Amino acid sequence: MNVDDAPQRLRTLPSWLIGQLAVQARHAVDAELEPLGVRRSQYSLLASVEQFGPSSQVELSERSGLDRSDVVRWVDDLVGRGWLRRAPDPQDRRRNVISITARGRTTLRALDTRVSNAQRSLLATLSDAQQEQLIRLLRKALALG
Amino acid sequence: MNVDDAPQRLRTLPSWLIGQLAVQARHAVDAELEPLGVRRSQYSLLASVEQFGPSSQVELSERSGLDRSDVVRWVDDLVGRGWLRRAPDPQDRRRNVISITARGRTTLRALDTRVSNAQRSLLATLSDAQQEQLIRLLRKALALG
DNA sequence: CCTATTTCAGATGGACTGAGATAC
DNA sequence: CGTATCTCAGTCAATCTGAAATAG
To answer: What is the pLDDT of residues A94-139, one digit of tens each?
Structure first.
């Protein structure tokens, strides 16, 4: 699609502009991750476990924004790749404790580089100051301190 | 999901912030349109036909951002509702000419109000000046004059 | 008995692909 | 002939729902 061909109604609509940029953002990140065979959900999960340490799957769901049932499937996958570990919680046997492996950390650092490249290509038309400004406004709109 | 619980890596990532706001944007618009039984795709199509006048389906696809095959299905639907009209193009019989009906125009105006409400709730945490600023930056990022 | 967590099976809507039919 | 348009059938990943199994 060519954004310039869209009708005025849409080209001036904040929700539409945000949606279009989100499409480009997804594509930029996916293009960087695809050669490594990694999806955005997997990056979110690795980042969540890495930052907060061993977590239950409900916690992972809240932090990553993934649905509880999708966390099940992706953790399955990431355990299979040797990037996460899943063990029953001895304190509360309803829960699993998900933790990151050494190889998971290494992978995450590689992904960080890729994801960071995607940001640059996504925001290439903005100056550094404008990028900062955009980030500030997005965070404010999301009520993120 | 609660955005505040996300890891630092994501909370500072432009593509992630954009994606999160896009989710909220979708929900805000959907919530406004749902009582009328209308989807965003339908609004995009009505807006495209209204602005540019009678169009082929390929043109509609380029302008609305919908895939050619989805245009087929949505035009079917909108014709069924009496909001669009589909006729063979006498100049080029491969094409259809899609045009908006009087009832379609009326509907579109009602949708405009709804969609506009959604923008206000989406950007409620921003001042008017900040909303303008955000729109400017989004358009620049999308390389939209 | 009620609630929380994990898991599964499947529904849903959106974006996309490939091929056939028709017309240029 | 090759190409453009419309149409259909169907895949695909992402999101979400409901209910079962287990444990607190």
So the answer is: 999 999 999 999 999 999 999 999 999 999 999 999 999 999 999 9
CA-to-CA dists, residue A127 to A18, B13, B129, angstroms: 19, 17, 20
Q: Which token pair is B10?
A: 């994501």
Q: Residue A49 burial (CB < 10 Å; 0-12/13-18/19+)?
A: buried
**Closest-approach nucleotide to residue A55, Cα vs C1':** C5
Please name the member of A7, A14, A51 whose beta carbon is closest to the beta carbon of B47: A7
Chain A residue closest in CA terms to B50: A7
- Taking contacts as CB-CB distances below 8 angstroms, the residues of chain B near A53 are none
Shortest Cα–Cα distance, B96 to chain A (Å): 19
CA distance B144 to A116: 24
CA distances from A54 to A38, A49, A84, A87, A97 (A): 22, 6, 10, 10, 6
Those residues whose beta carbons lie under 7 A from strand C are A 56-58, 61, 68-69, 71-72, 75-76, 86, 92, 94-96; B 39-41, 65-70, 92-94
Distance CA A51, CA B20 (A): 20
Backbone angles phi, psi at B84, to 5 degrees: -125, 165
Task: Report how far apart the first and last C-alpha atoms of chain A are (Å, whole number).
Answer: 35
Contacts of A103 (CB under 8 A, 6+ apart): A82, A83
- Separation in Å, CA of B110 to nearest CA in chain A: 13
Tell me the pLDDT tens digit for each residue of B62-89.
999 999 999 999 999 999 999 999 999 9
Residue nearest to nucleotide C17 (CA to C1'): B69
- Tokens matching residue B135: 């729109």
B55 touches chain A (CB under 8 A): no
In angstroms, rounded to a whole number, what is the distance separating the alpha carbons of residues B104 and B98? 12
